[in-house]
Write a structure and sequence with these properties.
The chain has 210 residues and is of the alpha+beta class. Helix content is 47%, strand content 12%.
């Protein structure tokens, strides 16, 4: 049974980097009804044609190395081949596995709905700077400042209990209802792909979708 994550300075400083990047996905694809999959506490924001016949949903965590690989290698190809061509739409969902993930999502929220994904991506592309350091909180403040988040906004973001509660609900639902065991977790038209999905496995699933 998943437990709710709470943010504290102790949790931020004690998180073990090597424990944050594991991906343990099911070995067999599983399918969900789209109506069930779209019923989440934090509304989806789609990239691509909103009326596209293919819906791709990815759960990711800022501390996940495989998620950064997806961002750098898989996403550009999906965007070029499927999103920009109107063949598919993509939503990225937060999956909080630890206090560091929670901080990134909370801090990104103060940037506004349009810029929040950019802030999360900036943290992900600079993972080594704030994960592999002794004072993670200071390092995260530095990265946030480079993304346009002032120290005052950073501190105020951590007080957003409403969003933290919704992040915890998203995590609980993802594990208990959607069967997610790690990140990145990718659904194509309701089917959860096995393993750490990449461009080829996503393209293959799209091709096999009626």
């Amino acid at each position: 049974m998943p437990t709710s994550l709470l943010i504290s300075r102790r949790a931020l400083l004690a998180s073990a980097a090597f424990a944050l990047v594991a991906s343990a996905m099911p070995g067999v694809a599983m399918a969900l009804e789209e109506e069930t999959l779209l019923g989440v506490d934090i509304p989806d924001s789609f990239t691509g044609n909103v009326d596209a016949p293919v819906t791709i949903i990815e759960y990711w965590s800022p501390t996940c190395g495989y998620c950064t690989t997806f961002l750098n290698e898989t996403y550009p190809r999906l965007k070029s081949d499927y999103l920009d061509t109107g063949k598919a739409r993509l939503a990225i969902r937060p999956f909080v596995r630890n206090a560091l993930d929670a901080v990134v999502f909370l801090v990104a929220e103060v940037a506004g709905r349009d810029r929040a994904p950019v802030v999360v991506e900036y943290f992900m592309r600079n993972q080594e700077r704030w994960i592999n350091t002794e004072d993670r909180l200071a390092a995260m403040k530095e990265v946030a400042a480079e993304a346009g988040i002032t120290p005052m906004l950073f501190e105020s973001a951590l007080l957003n209990r409403e969003l933290l509660n919704r992040l915890n609900l998203m995590r609980k639902q993802a594990i208990e209802v959607f069967g997610i065991q790690g990140t990145p977790a990718v659904f194509v038209n309701g089917t959860l792909l096995p393993g750490a999905a990449n461009y080829d496995s996503i393209a293959a699933q799209i091709a096999s979708t009626p």
